[in-house]
Every structure is written in C-alpha cells, then in structure tokens.
Amino acid sequence: MPRLNDVGGNLSKPWFVEYSCRNPHTDVMKRFRIYDGFKELTTIKERYEYADSLIAEIRSKLEKGITPFTDEERTVVYEDELMYHNAARIWGRQKSSVVTIRTHLSEFLKLKEVEVIHHTYQTYMSKLRIFCMYMEKMKLDQIHVSLISNEHICDFVRYLVADNELSRRSILKYKQILFNFFQYLLKNKKVIDRNPVEDLPNVGVRKDCAPHPIPDNIRKILKNEISKCDPQLWLVCQIQFYSAIRPGEEIRLMKIGDINFDSQTITIRKDIAKNRETETVDIPKQLYKEFVEVYQLHLYPTEYYVFGTDGEPGATHLGKNSFRFRFDKIRDRLGISSKYKLYSFKHTGASKLKEKGISTWELQRHLRHKSISTTENYIRRTIGIRSETIKNEFPDI
Known about the structure:
It is a single chain. With 397 residues, this protein is mainly α. Helix content is 49%, strand content 9%. The chain has 16 helices and eight strands. A three-stranded antiparallel β-sheet has the order 1-2-3, covered by helices on one side. The protein has a three-stranded antiparallel β-sheet with strand order 6-7-8, with no helix packed on it. A two-stranded antiparallel sheet has the order 4-5. Strand 2 and strand 3 form a beta hairpin.
C-alpha cells in the first residue's frame, strides 16, 4: 500500500509517495514512486496534507482494481478457449487483450484440456462460458479477479436458478467447477488471497435426473425391440449391464484390441477412462458369448473400434451422442418413461448383482469406484437399501 517518504522532514530533498503493485499477468511486483506535487509546497504541513490525499486516492484506485500499468504492460496474447466453435473457425481463437476474467478462464481451460477426458473438459468449458458471459454482462470483467467476492458468486448462482431453473445437481456442478477455477488462481497463479466459492446458498430446483434401474418387464420390451432393429445399440446396453462400462467415451471409443478373449477381460484405456486410469474389468460369461458367437468380434482387426459407423466394428468411431439419440428414439416410440435412460442399464446390472448378494467391496471393484463410501452412496441413491429379512421374515402384527 502507498506510504510517504518524507526523507526525515527535510524540505530541501524530494519527497515522494511509494507503493508496489503486482502485474496480474507476469505476477511480478513493480515499485512506483510519485514525486509530482511536492516540490511546489513550501511547508511541512502542506506536504503532509497533500501526501494524505494522494495516498487516499491511490489506495482507493487499488482497492477498486485499477492498476498503474500501461495498456502495453497489461496486454497479453492468449487463446480464447470460451469462443464457440464456428466463431473460432472463422476468426481464430488468438486474441490480444488486457488481462480479464476471460483470460484467466482460458488459461485454466488449457490446463484442464490435458488433465481430464474430453467429455469432462466440455462440461468445464460450457459452464465457465456461462459464468464468463454473466461476468461480462454485469461489467465484473472490468475489475481485478482478486476483487470478485463471495457475494458476486452468490448472485451468479441465484441468476442460474432464476433465469434457467437449474436443478440442485446442476448448481452443485457449477459450484465445484468454479471452486476449482478460483483454487487455480489462488494456488497456481497467486493473484487472489482467498477462494470466494464458499458458503454458497443451497438453491436449485429439486429434480430427479438420475437414470433409474429398469424393471424386468420393461427391460424385456426394450430387449426385444432394440436387439431386432439396432443390434449394435443392444451390444452397448449389454456391455453396460454386464461390465458396468460407461456408454460415453469408454464404450464409444473401445477397440477390438481392448478385449482380451483369452482372459475374458476388457481393458479401459486411460485416454478414454473417466478417471484417467487404465483399468481391467471381467467379462461375464453371457457377454462373452455375445462377443464371440453373436457379434464375432474376435474376427475383426484389433485396431478397429468396436462400434464403427456402419453398424459394425470399423476404422471410424461414432459421434458422442449417437447411442443416446438412438436409444431415446426407440424408448419414446415404445411409450416408455423417460426416467429410463441408456445409462440405466449400468445401474440395472449393479442392482441385479446386489440382489444376488454381492458384497459392497466387490461391487466397488466392479463399478470402479475410488472408495467404498462412493459405492455406499451409489447404493443408497440408485439401488436403495434392501433387506430380505424385512421383506420375507418380518414378524406378524
């Protein structure tokens, strides 16, 4: 903060106000000295009064995020990761700008792009894009990021609920992503001194968005229809049900070479795994029989994707929403509730295992959860707490 150097009260020497400020881009402190205005004042009292007003003015500017750096010093060249694809294709992503919230968000997204799978990166990008647009709309991009307060974040959360009617689960995802971003500014960039994403209001519309396990009678209807009109999609359903592999990149980008027909296992490569770790899962005998006898996957080249663009293994994989669109179309045509989703087959398989008496520890390994508590929460939320004793051996009233 600014302070006066009165050189011991000696009026014959130059007095000045000195302060230091950190360049928000280079993270380097620079010292500033202001000599102007003192020389014309001939008494100590006048110089002290002038110094007090000058210090107050500088302090006020700094607290508002106004820095003394020139445009040239504050201007950076960066890749705008928040631009929409079509605009970036036409105009390019590279920009020259003063450092703003958009600059920091773009740098953060660059790091996330190599840390997480593509689907997760897209989630980060879409939610941070909304946050950036809100900040720019409210003119909050014009202040330094260190001045973004908890109240600003709370206002953004309330805006999401009021204007978009987002579910509590969606709001929680926004909170997690924003917390990670500001933690990056705190720990890595060191341009803020506290994370403003804390003690946020618990808001959002209560919605049950989770896929439900599919009852036997409905699953039979889906099996008959999907296996007949879309055998490729039915294989997706079976892989989820039997091996608990996720239908996004884990199944969509699976290759023939990832299936070990000797050991009857599937390797989920770290470049497509949700947790970025290579893991191996068992192939139950029913699924193995489908692989070999029905779909004859062992006859295809190992470099082929299991789910190619021609309805069979091939050199080109399908688009990211292909499976979901195809499943939803068949489900809706059959008049089945939308609470049953493609991802429901994974939950259904887990539910059936639990009914067979599998231990929570075994289920954790099967679902590839990081901790037993994650699996316990999964059981409570997705499968429900069940007891054969309560169902069949409850005492008479």
